[in-house]
Sequence to fold (425 residues):
Amino acid sequence: MIEKLKSHLKSSGCDGWEIQETASVCWEFYFIRHKLDQHRVVREKNYDVKLYKSTDGGKYLGCASCRISPTANDEEIEKQIRDLVFQASLVKNPAYSLVSKKTDRPGKLDEVDVESICRDYINGILGVNETEGELINSFEIFAKEIERYTLNSNGVEYRCRYPSSTIELVINARNGSEEIELYRLLKSGTCDRKRLTSDIEKLMGYGRDRLKAIPTPRIKTGDVVFSTSDAAKIYSYFLNKMSAGSVYRKISDWKIGEPVCTGEGDKITLKAVSRLENSSMDFEVDEEGSEIFDRFIIRNGVAENYWGSRQFSQYVGLDRSSIVHNAVFEGGQKDKADVRTGDFLEVVEFSSFQVDFLSGEIAGEIRLGYLHKDGEVSVVTGGSVSGSMTDAAGTMEFSRETVQYDTMVIPEVTKLKALRISGAE
Fold:
């Protein structure tokens, strides 16, 4: 199929192309309570094609992409590629070049033991201690072995194989006639069984507390602590602000060599890494064929490197760059216990939580929180949290302890100060 695609692309009149072949084997398990309801193995192979067409004497370079079925015949492939050439000719992006340097890194082709990954998930989940009040309602396991082959018209080629797994889990908590559900979507490379068990037991505790929660009082403004996966959205704000695409489009005004925020809070240090153990995207070459190399994006609060695709990286003057999939944020100066001091609201369950990196606006509806006030702790629900990262980033505090959420390592506990807290009373 690869040779067939290359033949059609070469005769299409395009000025460059990229092909990505992705083959996956996914083991799927569906459990209701502790009983296996269904299981299957799904094999897929996809071909993603992107081609480029220059116009106005090479002043502009347009691109268009599509997915081509592995069963497509010559006539179907020719039509799809012809349509792509037409679409690309209408795009007037300033010209840029595709990756031309071949990587000297050997492809990451370690065997992926999908069966072992699934066994760890099943045994880990079924081994959780349940009670009459808190139990596992259902769970689904999707464990994949993914093999990706990337090549382009400049002779760049790279092949890698890596694991990617997803767990969907529903917990029931009940107290007499009252019952609630808590849902988790967990994504990683393989199964960290100890972490999995800890996360589920913690979630059961949240369910138990949710049943006795009182309405969140009217607070107006206060400090808010984040200690669950929602915190990753806070740190994604810094990563997205440093993308070449954001800078070129004037979405971000952050400049290399300048502080990303001012204030007395902890300083962000963000590093892009080529490899991150147990990430669901653990590979060393991005989708365009660029080598992913370790570098600081932000160091001690100062912008150091932009990152991004070939197109936008060249637009902002970068000779070498890549798309960032795995990011590590260093911890702060305090232990997590010291971050959790004073009066604050720690929200562990949101109905929804968003950090808009375009505007910096923060918004989340409180489903479960712990209000610390005058040395007393109340379990609360309802109301919302809102604010702006533009204001909060300069005073934020975060723990020296870190935790990994799939492709990101972030401080385990984060405090944003003076957010707006609307009560439910």
In short: The two ends are 63 Å apart (CA to CA). The longest strand covers residues 35-55.
